[in-house]
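User: quick one - fold this with pyridoxal-5'-phosphate bound?
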Amino acid sequence: MYTERVMDHFMNPRNMGEIPDADGVGTVGNPVCGDLMTVYIKVKDNRLKDVKFKTFGCGAAIATSSMITELAKGKTLEEGLKITRVDVADNLGGLPPVKMHCSNLAADALHSAIEDFKKKELKK
Amino acid sequence: MYTERVMDHFMNPRNMGEIPDADGVGTVGNPVCGDLMTVYIKVKDNRLKDVKFKTFGCGAAIATSSMITELAKGKTLEEGLKITRVDVADNLGGLPPVKMHCSNLAADALHSAIEDFKKKELKK
Amino acid sequence: MRRVYMDHAAGMPIDPRVFEVMKLYSLKSYGNPSSSHSFGVSAKSVLSESRERVASLIGAEKPTEVIFTSGGTESNNLAIKGVAYRNKDKGNHIITTAIEHISIINICKHLQKQGFQVSRIPVDNQGLVDPKKLKDEITDKTILISVMYANGEIGTTQPIREIGKIAHESQINFHVDAVAAAGKVPINAEEENIDLLSISSNDMYGPKGMGALYIKKGTRVQPVVQGGGQERGLRSGTENIPGIVGMGKAAEIAQEEMEAEGKHLTKLRDTLIQGVLDTIGSSHLNGHPTNRLPNNANLRFSYIEGESLILGLDMVGVQVSSGSACTSKTLEPSHVLLAMGLAHEEAHGSLVFTMGKQNSEEDVEYVLEVLPGVVKRLREISPLTPKEMLR
Amino acid sequence: MRRVYMDHAAGMPIDPRVFEVMKLYSLKSYGNPSSSHSFGVSAKSVLSESRERVASLIGAEKPTEVIFTSGGTESNNLAIKGVAYRNKDKGNHIITTAIEHISIINICKHLQKQGFQVSRIPVDNQGLVDPKKLKDEITDKTILISVMYANGEIGTTQPIREIGKIAHESQINFHVDAVAAAGKVPINAEEENIDLLSISSNDMYGPKGMGALYIKKGTRVQPVVQGGGQERGLRSGTENIPGIVGMGKAAEIAQEEMEAEGKHLTKLRDTLIQGVLDTIGSSHLNGHPTNRLPNNANLRFSYIEGESLILGLDMVGVQVSSGSACTSKTLEPSHVLLAMGLAHEEAHGSLVFTMGKQNSEEDVEYVLEVLPGVVKRLREISPLTPKEMLR
Ligand SMILES: Cc1ncc(COP(=O)(O)O)c(C=O)c1O
Ligand SMILES: Cc1ncc(COP(=O)(O)O)c(C=O)c1O
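Assistant: Sure. Structure tokens for the protein plus pyridoxal-5'-phosphate:
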């Protein structure tokens, strides 16, 4: 069902964990639906210095979360916002169709974390 | 499907053939239906001295024809009229249900031959 | 005693190569394709491989156009009832032929009770459907045309391509019952304008209890069996993976070997037919002489009845049939032979030889050796046989 | 790596003794029971032997009350639609439960579109149906009550005998989906007042693509598949003799070995359940503790999701399920767990272990060895896990 890359990210998730003093936090999904992801970011000089995640969900949900952290790390905020669900799936070698729509929320979580950071910046 | 006795009478029919100077002839069935039997009898002193048959039809039709000649031979006319389809089937060790109704016409053919003989006698 | 089985239309052995692959999926790799774990993943992958093989055999454009079922009868049910119920907003008229398999006949009767109209095109004395007559029956209420590719009993193959064109031009769903033809003659569903095509696994040396229905993309069909939504929702129930793998393998072998086997069988068939017509008086060939399945010889012997012929041959080791195995229990003569214009007593006296790849020239020789005696004996018993013939 | 397959509800190996008898009827004795010759006669005789074996397993009075089908789903279709359509002159109301298999659910939905009324009896938090509640739903339009013998997912077995009595007193057809139960717990259709009973072959180590429906003498049922009139006209299509023989053999073995195997499995099951509840925090048993299938353990782990648990276990060689294999592709949590009152996130975190006769105590030990680590790892990844738990 899953590609080897998906299984690798599922078994050895990159950047798993919280960032207690995160500059932005984004949460998408709902445990009721079976998927909940939180992405934490640390920003420096308009760049995503650190990206971490915590995820409740299926194998695809965990793997896409892990992948988004890899893709996002070191990118500018603008570049981060341009990472799409499709990018995440492509970098994992593809996802089963049923998972494309339901569990591929990681890009949304990243975007939400960046928006959160921006909102906080404005308030400063 | 068929008992050994049926197969025996089918493969080695008893009293097969015509009686050119028969005292009575009975034919039942119809080639259109797939079964046609003719029974020939020779009568002496109110007894069935000889009984022969010719049959177009399935295995059961041939076996029951053969059996009726064995059952009838030597019997009185009254006894002959009392031989039933069930007697024929029983003496063959049974027949498949579907064949009981359709191909078990031999008793009828015998009865018809006896009636034919009686009719002829009356006319004499 | 020699054993010569020539009733392949009623039942076939499974090819040992097919059985071998079924073994693995029966005993070791028994996962459910819906499962998320590795057993499930491997089941899912052989499921789609098998689908590709079947699709390739029948010239489907996409493997997903193939739906696995439990056999030819179920495929026919899904095709006919599936199209009828799903398209009843468009019309209620179905065109079929007088010589279809009993399953098509009974499905149509069932639909007639529910208000559908069914036209049955007659055939000529060789069992051929006339496409023009079929065309004349089309109305604006016609939603389905169903014609068999070949008749398993008389062997006649139909002008499917021509009928497909007619159906296509009128934008009417075209179903073809190819149960007796698939694996024996080349079929290309896409090119022949076929929208639905029924096939059965055992008829090509695959496992019994397996079939498939080709449903061309875009064809609207309602399922007959509701449930877990397997086979794109069109045929629910846990997939019979050993059966599906077996059918896939059988399709692959059939595709590879069809040409060689067809030649082999055609030769046996023609030797048998010619031999019988030459040596047995008042014998006749039923069906078309050349537009016929390579493995089918349907022969008629005047004055005697088919079932007694079957029994007589069985006693000398030869297994044949008197028509469709399904209908033989009703004792009715074959509706196919009657539709070709044969008299009842002629229909009763017909024998169907269906050969398989294990049959050899020696088998045919043996049949030609024993058959005349069996016919003669039964003719001696029959009151219909002309006296001259017995001398 | 050790391999421990505990997803028998999704797919089972065929018992090698079953496969052995199928071999003969696949390769050598491949006659059609409708044929008149010796090949046909021998097929007919094993057909009725197999029918007797299945009849005996489920306590049918007469073998002819058993109709062979292509699986549990088809049996359910024949039972529910067959009774509904055939008895619609009497009424249009069907009573079933909230935890039936997806096939029953979807068949009922199909019937609702055609004007039938369906009442679904709720279950308690252990998955039990209350016969009194069921009785209250009966109206003079009720023509069918359908309740599963056991649920393959949560393992709970129902008070069938009691419900049968209620149905019998009200003279309503009583259908029981025993697909998950047959061969595992004793069933006596006659004594339990069951009119129709669905079973599946693979669920008792028989071939896939085979099932049966018990139809008590006198029960009026309309066929779902029309055709050549096999199986007393209730299920047309050439009989799958290897499959039928296999199912017969599987039924025979199940009957002989049920008691011993039941003890063995119950012991494994209870060791597994106790071991998990003892060693893994925030874990729970779903379903009834004692009224449950001997081979089923349905366990819930808070804060994590089932599919990732399945994958995690698969990576260490353990195959399990997160619910009905059929529904797993929809990503919806189990309707059965929701019907028992579980919250969505609880339902998402459940795992189904279904053991088979090849499983050993060592298998259970292995699961108890690896499962805590898999759960722990996923809880570390999950944002829902309470901080205290991770220390
Ligand atoms: C032309 C045709 N259609 C359909 C069928 C039915 O197939 P099955 O009995 O395998 O379901 C047959 C069977 O011989 C057939 O010859
Ligand atoms: C209770 C129940 N009924 C019916 C079925 C459907 O059986 P099948 O998928 O073999 O057709 C299942 C399958 O697991 C089941 O558990």
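One thing worth noting: Chain D is about 40% helix and 15% strand.
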